Amino acid sequence: MPFKKLHSDIQEKLEIQKISTPTPFQSKSIPVIKSGANLYALAPIDSGKTTTLILTTLQKLNFEPKGDSPRAMVLVENKEIALAMYDAFLKFTKNSGLRVYVGYDQLHIDVQKSEIYEGVDILISTPRTLKKLFLLNGVNTSQLQLFSLDNADFLSKSSSYDAFLTVTQSITKCQYVFYSEKTHSVLKRFKSSFMEHSKTISI
């Protein structure tokens, strides 16, 4: 049971939310992500991808705040999804001390830059905003351990793809997990670079 092998504080949060049985996708994907492998995680809607993303992120960070720079990033398509992801994280991180921050295009970039400077463990952002933060030295990737992409099909848009590449070029070592409903040609492009030795899970 994947949940039984997660941090005890994560298990406690799962119990509060009455989540006791992993979905087939979670049973297959959580152990692979915990192993540290780069992964293409493919599954239809309502398979438990978002919860998997949250659980494995918290597990990677040992469910504790540390340092000032983001140790985990979650890239999403737009503001609405970013805010929904933030709310989903808060169900697990409230009162934990973990600092989750959400950035999006409609929020002034200087405000985001200054707030991130105060210290963030998990950064949720849209591609355009993350690129701006990076180019303005508003986000430090030196401590980054896990980079997750939610419904990564949005990378098929050239602007999102270019923004993602700009940021990844500054990352020396990091685990990448691409969540998607199905494989996409744009995702395969990374096979020749940082996803060369990645694994794929599909249900």
From TrEMBL:
UniProt domain Helicase ATP-binding: residue ranges: 30-187
Protein name: DEAD/DEAH box helicase
Keyword Iron-sulfur carried by entry: no
GO cellular component, one term: cytosol
Pfam families per record: DEAD
Keyword annotations: ATP-binding, Helicase, Hydrolase, Nucleotide-binding
Origin: domain of life: Bacteria
UniProt keyword Iron-sulfur present: no
A GO term, aspect molecular function: hydrolase activity
